[in-house]
Structures are given as structure tokens and as C-alpha cells.
Design goal:
Pfam families: Carn_acyltransf. Helix content is 42%, strand content 15%. With 610 residues, it is of the alpha+beta class. Strand 9 and strand 10 form a beta hairpin.
């Protein structure tokens, strides 16, 4: 079965019924609202359900679904590409990998090995030999692997464009080069052997990278990649100016934007301090990354490795999957080719020398200053719990993911004394070009359990009652996840209804307001429009107890937390991010995650059923 052979067989993304979506929203909001607020929201939602506007919007959305195999796809990418803030730290995903070790003098060796194995994935995808993802016997959409390489989020005013240049062997010619940035100097490397269309060996790549290393001077102070770190409208203007300055710049920008990936070899040690590595994963130095690319790899002097990507084009799990594949195959010791330099013929890389005028030099300096200001806006920490993991939870017939979700909410409650609207990613890749749906895991069942656990005697006062409440919270969350993965969540549907109304209002008819429950102050307080105090995602199982590729995106709200976790046989690791100068308290929250996981351990008994 080839990588993309099942694409046409995947079902279309469904449009849920209006009644089901509104009832689910009411039920979800009720967990956080007062009885009076719940009654008001229920009244407003039911009025919309029975209104002419509700019927018109639902009908229009259903008609769109008849003409689009995935009615959400274009709108979903637009929601990302309309964001004007810099991609890092607001959109990008940054990751380290615990499998990598430091090797003195190993930068070029590690870079050659890492690049070769990333290119082997590119080659497998190109020839349709990358395995199709499936879950519980269900085939998943593979389109994001088609988007992974040779993609670029090109800055445009008001809305960026997603430009994708990759083609499979069947589809035709595809870019076959990578861009290497070394000390701020740009080089273009062709990665295919001309005679047999195979990717170059690690030895060949080593010699090319050694040539790059030996022939690069320090030009980092005026490196063009710094321009990509700014506000998207600013970068769009500067990109236009860059293209205007010379025809060579047009060629070089095109080379970067169509490249398979972007790799930097930097004059800095990464080190073994995982806390520092995690902090630097999203933003290290301003010139290390071409922010618009889906795959950016940074190789440090001591052979440490970081990966960063534009989250708008692909989900983090895709980048993580390939990152783990590569890390498991890369050599961990210093090595050199049998033949080097003059002893071996190799294809010389092409140097890309950008031309700058004074306005561009000033823009680069300005971008540099703003980048280092933005690095101070957020924090990231790793939390590692070694008490239990997937083995114990499987014995108890409980999904470990669900346990972690309850623990994160308990940690927030313990830290701030209130319940948090929470976002968890549910994959909808069982559908054609599916990406994600939102699981709003703060349920009324969880609220009852949490109150009882923390000593509310009006809810429960016996251990057996607590166990029943725990089981009820687990089951409620599992049902939400199942519904969302089946395309029957409510957040994307409500988004579709709002966008449909926006399109209708651009016509010649009278302009109509959004339904009242979407304008009510409770909408955002319960998480509407991305206002989740906890933004969370399960990013995969560990190989044994080694976290592997481990990263994060920034929290959705200034006063919230981002939580991205991997599950091992007997450990759980969470990457936590928050924003500085807000009411968030990352130290207390991280400590309370450990407390919460311990507090849930007694409930992991064989009585629970999936």
C-alpha cells in the first residue's frame, strides 16, 4: 500500500446536526457557568436553533459540504494564515529530542547524518513508501506528509499564502535541494545523485557540509533570515523590498522557499541541560531559522539538535513522528567518511549572497531587537512524573491520555482555585484532509469529581463515591474524544456557522448579527474563539521511557498554559509553557501536575472499563 493510495477512499468530513452541536455546547459551558448563566445561554442557543437564521446557516454549510470533500479545510488554513503576529513564538512548534547526545567536534558528522535521514523520509514520501498511518484499524489521511517538505508560508498583507512545491514521483518534478545556513551564510545543496536519482549518502553530504563549514565567514549580524521573525505584514513589506533590490535576490528567495528543508549549523553549544534546551527550542538566536518553513533543523557545535516548524501547515504530531524516526537512526558517536576533501569528488554547494540596501539593513537590525524582546515574553518547563505510565493504566483499562487530562485540570484548580476551559487536540485524520477538533474536557462530571477530591463534602465523602465520580469523569471525557474523532465535535461546526454568516453578510442583503449566545460574555469565558486557559495535546507514546522528540507551542491565552505530553511505560512527561507577566504561575502549576498525577494513582484499579 503506497503512502497516498487510500486518499480517495477516505470519507468526507461530516457536518453535525445543529441540535447536537448546540446541546453539546450548552452541556460543556454549564460545567463552568453559574446556574443563572447556564439558563441564559440555554435560552439563547435554543432561540438560535429554532430561528430562520439558524436554519439558513446550517443549510448553507451542508451545501458547502456537498461541494467540498472537506468543508473546513480552506477555512482552517485561513484561520492560521490570517494571524499577523510573528510565527515564533505565537504559531510555530519547537522541539528538542532526548535521544541526541553531545559530541565534541561532531557538528558536521551529526548534521550529515541528520540531514541524510530526513532526506530518506522525503525520498520515501516521494516514492509513496512512507507507511500509511492507522489507528485501531482505521486508515488516516496522509496529506500532511505531502505538505511537510518544500512548503512555505509566504507573507502577504492581511493573509499569508501556503505555497507547497513538493510532488511525488508520479506527480512530476519536485525541488531536490536543501538550504544550509552556516554562520549566517546561505548555501544551496542538491541532494540527489544525477546518475541514479538516489539521495546522497551521509559521506557525500558530510563532504558538502564540511566545504560549507570551511568556506563560511561570520555574517550572522546581517543574516536575511532575521527578517522572517517579524510581524507578518512587516515581513511582507521587507520581502517585497528584498525582491526589488536585485534579480539575484529573487532567485535566492525562490530557492529558500521551494527548498525541501532549512538546516543551520551554528557556532554555539546546545548542551545537555534539558530545561535550557526546551526554553531555546522555540526561539534561540534570531538567524537560526527561516520561520516560514515547515521543517527547520538547527545543529549546534556540540552536535545537539533542535527542530522547529510552522504549525499552520502541519500538525505537530507529523513533525514529531519524523523527528523520532530520524533520531533513532542517527549515529551517536563522532565519525568521518573514509574519504574526505580532495580524496573524494563531491558536488560543490552553491553560495547564495543576498544584496541589501540601507532600508533592509535597518530592517534586519530592527528585527533582531524585536526578536530578543519576544524571547522574554514566555517560559517553558519540562515536568517528568515517574510514578506510573501506560503499563499501569492499561492494566486498569483506562486511557493514560484521559488520566493526564484530568491531572492537568486538577493542577490548574489547585493552583488558581477555579476551573479552566481546556482545549485538547482530537485528530480528525480518519476523514479526507482532516486535521483536528477540540475536546473541551472540563465536563460537569469532572467538576463533581474534582470538588469531591479536594474535600467538598456536599459532593462525596466516601472513597467508593470518589471512585464512581472518577469513573464518570473518565467516561465523559472518553465519549467526547470519540465524538470529536468521528467528526461530531462542536467547535469546528460553530466556527463554520460563523464564517458562513460572515460570507452571507458580504452580499447585497441586510447584515445580520451573530446569534446572541456567540456574543454573550460567557462565550469567551468558556473557551470560545480560542480562549482556553489550558491548551493541551497528547503528542505520542515514548519508545520505552525515553521521551524522544519533545516540544511545545505557546499557550493560547496570556494567562493560560500550554501542555504537551508524551506517555511512556512508567512515566509521563509534560512540556509546559506560559506567558510572563500574567496571573499564570508556572512553578506552582508544574508542581501541582506532579501532585495531581499522584492523587489520581489510587483510582487506577482494574474495575474501570474502557
Amino acid at each position: 500500500m503506497s503512502t497516498f493510495s487510500r486518499q480517495d477512499q477516505l470519507p468526507s468530513l461530516p457536518v453535525p446536526s445543529l441540535v447536537e452541536t448546540l446541546e453539546k455546547y450548552i452541556d460543556s459551558a454549564s460545567a463552568i457557568l453559574t446556574p443563572a448563566e447556564k439558563a441564559r445561554v440555554e435560552k439563547e442557543a435554543h432561540e438560535f436553533q429554532h430561528s430562520e437564521l439558524g436554519a439558513q446557516l446550517q443549510s448553507a454549510l451542508e451545501n458547502r459540504a456537498k461541494n467540498h470533500k472537506n468543508w473546513l479545510e480552506d477555512w482552517w488554513y485561513n484561520a492560521y494564515t490570517e494571524i499577523r503576529e510573528p510565527l515564533a513564538p505565537y504559531v510555530s512548534f519547537g522541539a528538542m529530542n532526548t535521544a541526541y547526545n553531545c559530541v565534541d567536534g561532531g557538528q558536521v558528522s551529526r548534521a550529515a547524518d541528520v540531514l541524510h535521514h530526513w532526506l530518506s523520509v522525503w525520498d520515501k514520501v516521494r516514492h509513496g513508501k512512507w507507511p500509511v498511518t492507522s489507528s485501531r484499524g482505521v486508515t488516516w489521511d496522509m496529506q500532511q506528509f505531502h505538505h511537510l517538505f518544500s512548503s512555505n508560508r509566504t507573507p502577504q498583507r492581511t493573509r499569508d499564502t501556503m505555497d507547497r512545491y513538493f510532488k511525488t514521483k508520479e506527480e512530476g518534478d519536485t525541488p531536490t535541494h536543501v538550504i544550509i545556513c552556516c554562520d549566517g551564510c546561505f548555501w544551496k545543496l542538491n541532494i540527489l545523485n544525477e546518475d541514479d536519482d538516489t539521495i546522497k549518502s551521509p559521506d557525500e553530504i558530510y563532504n558538502m557540509l564540511k566545504f560549507v563549514r570551511d568556506n563560511s565567514s561570520d555574517e550572522s549580524s546581517c543574516c536575511v533570515s532575521k527578517l522572517t521573525t517579524t510581524n507578518r505584514d512587516v515581513w511582507s513589506l521587507n520581502r517585497d523590498e528584498l525582491l526589488r533590490v536585485s534579480s539575484a535576490n529573487i532567485e535566492y528567495v525562490r530557492a529558500v522557499e521551494t527548498s525541501i528543508l532549512f538546516l543551520s549549523m551554528v557556532p554555539k553549544k546546545g548542551g545537555d541541560d534539558q530545561q535550557k534546551l526546551m526554553s531555546n527550542a522555540l526561539q534561540d538566536e534570531s538567524w537560526f531559522v527561516w520561520q516560514d518553513k515547515s521543517v527547520n533543523i538547527t545543529i549546534y557545535e556540540d552536535a545537539q539538535v533542535m527542530v522547529q516548524g510552522d504549525h499552520s501547515n502541519i500538525d505537530a504530531i507529523v513533525l514529531l513522528q519524523v523527528g523520532d524516526y530520524v533520531a533513532s537512526r542517527v549515529r551517536k558517536q563522532l565519525w568521518h567518511p573514509a574519504k574526505t576533501g580532495s580524496d573524494l569528488h563531491f558536488e560543490f554547494p552553491e553560495r547564495l549572497i543576498f544584496e541589501f540596501n540601507e532600508p533592509l539593513r535597518h530592517a534586519i537590525s530592527f528585527a533582531d531587537v524585536e526578536f530578543y524582546k519576544s524571547k522574554q515574553l514566555y517560559r517553558a518547563r519540562g515536568v517528568h512524573h515517574h510514578g506510573y505510565g501506560n503499563e499501569l493504566c492499561r492494566t486498569a483499562k483506562v486511557y493514560t491520555d484521559t488520566v493526564v487530562q484530568l491531572a492537568l485540570q486538577l493542577a490548574f484548580l489547585k493552583t488558581h482555585g477555579s476551573f479552566a476551559p481546556i482545549y485538547e487536540t482530537a485528530s480528525t485524520r480518519k476523514f479526507f484532509h482532516g486535521r483536528t477538533e477540540t475536546v473541551r474536557g472540563c465536563t460537569s462530571q469532572f467538576v463533581r469529581f474534582a470538588k469531591a477530591l479536594l474535600g467538598d463534602q456536599t459532593v462525596a465523602n466516601e472513597k467508593e463515591d470518589l471512585k464512581k465520580l472518577f469513573d464518570s469523569a473518565i467516561n465523559a471525557h472518553n465519549q467526547l474524544m470519540a465524538d470529536c474523532m468521528d467528526g461530531r465535535g462542536f467547535d469546528r461546526h460553530l466556527m463554520g456557522l460563523k464564517l458562513t454568516l460572515s460570507i452571507m453578510n458580504k452580499g447585497c442583503g441586510p447584515k445580520r448579527q451573530a446569534p446572541e449566545f456567540l456574543r454573550d460574555d460567557t462565550w469567551k469565558r468558556t473557551g470560545g474563539d480560542g480562549n482556553f486557559l489550558l491548551s493541551t495535546s497528547f503528542i505520542g507514546y515514548m519508545d520505552g521511557n525515553q521521551p524522544g522528540t519533545f516540544g511545545y507551542v505557546a499557550a493560547m491565552r496570556p494567562d493560560g498554559y500550554g501542555c504537551f505530553y508524551r506517555i511512556g511505560k512508567s512515566r509521563i512527561s509534560v512540556a509546559v509553557s506560559d506567558w510572563v507577566s500574567s496571573r499564570s504561575n508556572i512553578d506552582a502549576f508544574c508542581a501541582n501536575i506532579l501532585w495531581a498525577l499522584d492523587a489520581l494513582a489510587p483510582f487506577l484499579t482494574p474495575a474501570q472499563k474502557l
